[in-house]
Amino acid sequence: MVQHVTSGIKISVVTHYEGSFYKNYKIHYAFGYKITIENQSKDSVQLNARHWIISDALNHKETVSGEGVIGLKPVLKPGESHTYNSGCLLTSPFGAMQGHYNMVNFATAKNFKVTIPSFKLSATFALN
């Protein structure tokens, strides 16, 4: 598990390898991840957007940005958490993801970024 706290918001990430398949004559490796966003601050916050940088062992990089997470813009009161599952495809059995969430603090009406720490994606068959 990888964890990081920014401005009282704790991000925890757990990953797993889901398998591989061929698409358009190219092998793809599927990875899943579970993220828990925990509000350890004294203010209510809302996650509005996400920004990802996804890279694989072949030095391919992809940037993904969008509103919310899996169609939601969760509001977290102090002490609350939100967990969701998602995934990505790589063209190599190893890679990494990192990024940030854009959030708003309801008490101050200020926007802020919460770091999503870099986490590794590794196919189990390729590990030594």
TrEMBL record:
<protein>
    <submittedName>
        <fullName>Co2+/Mg2+ efflux protein ApaG</fullName>
    </submittedName>
</protein>
<dbReference type="InterPro" id="IPR036767">
    <property type="entry name" value="ApaG_sf"/>
</dbReference>
<feature type="domain" description="ApaG">
    <location>
        <begin position="3"/>
        <end position="128"/>
    </location>
</feature>
<dbReference type="InterPro" id="IPR007474">
    <property type="entry name" value="ApaG_domain"/>
</dbReference>
<dbReference type="InterPro" id="IPR050718">
    <property type="entry name" value="ApaG-like"/>
</dbReference>
<dbReference type="Pfam" id="PF04379">
    <property type="entry name" value="DUF525"/>
</dbReference>
